Amino acid sequence: MDISPGIFLAGIVASAAPLVLAALGETLTEKAGVINLSLDGAILLSAMTGFVVAARTGSPAVGFISAAGTGMLVALILVVVSIYLGQSQVAVGFALTFLCRDLAYFLGAPFARTAGPQLSIVPVPILSDLPVIGPLFFQHSLIVYTSFAAIPLLWFFMYRTPQGLILRCVGENPEGCWARGIRPRKIQTMYTLLGGALIGLSGAAFSLAIKPGWGRPQGCEGMGWIALALVIFGGWHPLRVAFGAYLFGFLQMGGILLQDVFPAIPAPIFQVAPFPLMIFTLVLVHLGRNNTGRKRLLLRLLSGDPPDALGKNYRQA
User: Fold this and answer.
1) Do 60 and 118 meet the contact criterion of CB atoms below 8 Å apart?
2) What are the average pLDDT values for consecutive 10-residue runs of the chain, which has 317 residues?
3) Which residues on adjacent β-strands are paired with residue 123?
């Protein structure tokens, strides 16, 4: 397979877009102190919903809206059962991810392997004609452009606005926020739902743009766990989380190329290779986090600490 460097890089950017959205959505949720482990199932259910609705209505836009709503609905269940009823966020998240996965395959069975609409490429006028960066950044579908915009917007919101400061404070010390007149549960609910919407968009991005269609197995299965790992890899910082998503996209695209370079090696080895490589990278980040001084400077730049109240249900007085 003869792939030019430009096409290779553009493929990385496009394939990483759903992961960018999902990982940023989880970052937003976890910054508020809530762990949403339903990620993998929510992506699958949203992918199915987005594809089915788009196929029935003929409108990918309506499909994306429905997928975002599906992600928010799953997040709402987590909010009610965990934040308000006090049950374990981890246990509820695990139960939801398997429930959503089975629901997706059961409800989507009649639409498996059927034709449906998909997002088309929308070149940006003038910019798409620029050498090198034009094909790389400005010849994609709208969902890829959305993933581009989400990265700086989320960073700016978290670290340059009063609302972002409140979000981070709730994730660190909800009791202290309550003492200052902030309602931690309201903040956690809001950002868990917003994070769920981004996760839902991620699911629709798979079934309507990156890997169009629906069937079993679906190409996005397992991506939720990778998105969760990326949040840790990026130290709960949106810019580093996005970098991790593009790194994983690079590993996936590299695996595709290596199949032709080494035809004697079974193709499934290259398909699963990005996953252990990502685990290895997480180990390196952990080692870098435990080093001080000038040692492992690059690794320490990729590290970060989780919010102090992450996963702990706040009991309002």
Assistant:
1) yes
2) 70 91 96 94 95 93 96 96 93 94 92 86 86 86 94 96 95 91 93 97 93 80 89 90 89 71 62 66 61 50 76 78
3) 139
Cα(275)–Cα(108) distance, integer angstroms: 27
Fold of 5-301: ABC transporter involved in vitamin B12 uptake, BtuC (1.10.3470)
What is the per-residue pLDDT for 10?
85
Distance CA 169, CA 180 (A): 11
- SS3 for 83-151, per residue? HHCCCCHHHHHHHHHHHHHHHHHHHCHHHCCCCCCCCCCEECCCHHHCCCHHHHHCEECHHHHHHHHHH
Would you state the pLDDT for residue 27?
96
Structure confidence at residue 289 (pLDDT): 54
Cα dihedral value 266, 271, 275, 281, nearest 10 = 80
In this prediction the pTM is 0.89
Q: How far apart are CA 166 and CA 163, in angstroms?
A: 5
Question: What is the sign of the dihedral through the CA atoms of 44, 230, 254 and 143?
Answer: positive
User: Is residue 314 a contact partner of residue 174, using CB atoms and an 8 Å limit?
Assistant: yes
Say which residues have a Cβ less than 8 Å from residue 139's Cβ, sequence separation at least 6. Answer: 10, 121, 123, 124, 128
User: Is 166 exposed, middle or buried (CB count within 10 Å of its CB: 0-12, 13-18, 19+)?
Assistant: middle
Q: Which residue(s) pair with 140 in the sheet?
A: 122
| Domain spans of the chain, in order of start | 5-301
CA dihedral 104, 106, 107, 108 (to 10 degrees): 70
Angle at 49 between CA 97 and CA 70, to 5 degrees: 60
Residues 147/21, Cβ–Cβ less than 8 Å: yes
State how far the Cα of 41 lies from the Cα of 66, in Å rounded to an integer. 16
